[in-house]
Amino acid sequence: MSIRIAPSILSADFGRLESEIFEVASADFIHVDVMDNHFVPNLTIGLPVVERLAQISPVPLDVHLMIADPDRWAAKYAEVGAASCTYHFEAANNPLQVARDIRSTGSRAAVAIKPGTPAEAVFDLLTEVDMVLVMTVEPGFGGQEFMREMLPKLGALRKAAADAGTDIWLEVDGGISVETAPEAVAAGADTLVAGSSVFGHLDRAAAIANLRVAAR
Ligand code: DX5
Ligand code: ZN
Fold this sequence. Notes:
Number of strands: 8
CATH class: Alpha Beta
Strand content: 15-25%
Strand order of the largest sheet: 1-8-7-6-5-4-3-2
Structural class: alpha/beta
CATH architecture: Alpha-Beta Barrel
CATH topology: TIM Barrel
Bound molecules: D-xylitol-5-phosphate, zinc ion
Helix content: 25-40%
Order of helices and strands: EHEHEHEHEEHEHEHH
Number of domains: 1
Number of helices: 8
Shape: globular
Largest sheet: 8 strands, parallel
């Protein structure tokens, strides 16, 4: 199985975002963290910036919405060009409808769970989404320590998806490095978000290559 790598631009230099995303063009996706200071205690970028990034990016966007009311917003991010659009289960009033709204645009739909949310919470959604994102830190900030106690959720999701007759991607986000990537992959992850472990290195292409080797 080949592992997908998605560098998170949360750790990039926002003053030179265009060149930053070209520096990670060897990645499979670019992970874009949208935060609203309501669902998480941090604020980043919104719809107009994501729309422009989608136009200029050499790599498809994996948009991670850490926002309240994804019921209202998620499909709009898909419409402006997010190849994959992830909303938080905890934030959605009607998680099933959000998934359907995203998919109706032609984009991939994904649902994310915070560390305190059990994998079982999204079992009913597995046939309605293309990916589940298991957070391995509390969402809100880059550079936090990997929570390896989240890893059993991946196996539980993989089994539940097989039982439901569906094949979904499993993404992990938070604290992924050359040290922790092998653990996440062994536990069942196939898509790895990496912020500080890519943009914390001057040679981003080498950092991505090193993650690929570690995750193999
Ligand atoms: C955190 C974000 C992550 C963050 C990961 O809430 O969702 O995508 O950028 O950063 P690292 O890889 O540094 O933990
Ligand atoms: Zn993220």
